[in-house]
Amino acid sequence: MNFSLRLTGAWLALLFVVAAADADDPFAAAAPAAPAVPAAQEPIAPKCFVIPSAEKLGNNAQITNYREQFSPTLYQVEWSGWPVLDFTMLAAMLLLGAVMVWRHVHFRRFWIPASLTLFYFGILRGGCICPVGSVTQMSVGLVHPELVGVFTALMFLLPLAVALCMGRVFCVAGCPLGAMQHLLGGHHSLRLPIWLERVLRGFPVLTLAATAWLGVRGVCMWVCLLDPYKTAFFFGYGWLHRAINWCQGGLVEPGFFWVGDWSAWAILIASLLAGFWIYRPFCRFVCPYGMLLGCFASVAFKRRRISQPHCANCGLCEKHCPVHAITRDPVTQEFSISSFHCIQCNRCSSYCRKNGVC
Q: SS3 letters for the chain?
């Protein structure tokens, strides 16, 4: 954990240095100024085109003019209230998850926030909260702040603020990728060897570094391809909105709606199969946002801990921890919880017979 924290901190510090250097680089090529447009040639804002009535289409010239100005709308106009609703739903999911963690609700009840998160953020919004994409967008904002919206920044910072208060609640309530892995896998998880676990835990550091570096240097969103579940989100999003449009009496294209090619579906199926045998493989070994959440959770005001006076040293908490965040000290034989890796799933508190996890 110390190695991951130090390496993550070093990369974040380097990222801010690079961003500051790009902003103050005196040798950077300045963008060519746009040529001045004479007042007489200034473009006039186009007026909204109104479909004429049958009486006004009286001759061929009017029909020709109508056809030249007509352009079909491929997509419906995005509702302006979506950002506010998205932020409200994220806050509600985080609040629900925080209450469940605080009250030590049985881990089997976490299907409730996971289902709500998957439906709203995964299906209805098409996976709009992407941990990889949010890190990229905020990295781009270090150099080009004008490209990052207010709600994008708020939705990036809110889970980190909650992690600073009481740990990685976002992993179990609010993240569509985590909800997908929680609902469809992890029931027969295998325990990886310790050496392999330590090696794989270093990959999110590299993912975070590459995501931030590509975002700062090239405004590149290529790393969003790391999301293996986007195919399922887009597929569900398309079918749901297609059904909604049909119920409202709108036009729907005939035929079977399909998203992605064979490679995208192969990656999705492979990820689901891997998640069936290994608990949350993407969250633990790929997600760059998880590294940031872990750093904030390590210094959280309320961290999950084991009360040694109440601990019976039965080892059930260590055995049932799906992310292997609980370890036993070889000298004192006491158990401890790593706040960096703990995802607040409540399995340890659910299995503890002496209420030793608090």
A: CHHHHHHHHHHHHHHHHHHHHHHCCCCCCCCCCCCCCCHHHCCCCCCCCCCCCCCCCCCHHHHHHHHHHCCCCCCCCCCCCHHHHHHHHHHHHHHHHHHHHHCCCCHHHHHHHHHHHHHHHHHHCCCCCCHHHHHHHHHHHHHCHHHCCHHHHHHHHHHHHHHHHHCCHHHCCCCHHHHHHHHHCCCCCCCCCHHHHHHHCCHHHHHHHHHHHHHHHHCCCHHHHHCCCHHHHHHHHHHHHHHHHHHCCCCCCCCCCCCCCHHHHHHHHHHHHHHHHCCCHHHHHCCHHHHHHHHHHCCCCCCCCECCCCCCCCCHHHHHCCCCCEEECCCCCCEEECCCCCCCCCHHHHHCCCCCEC
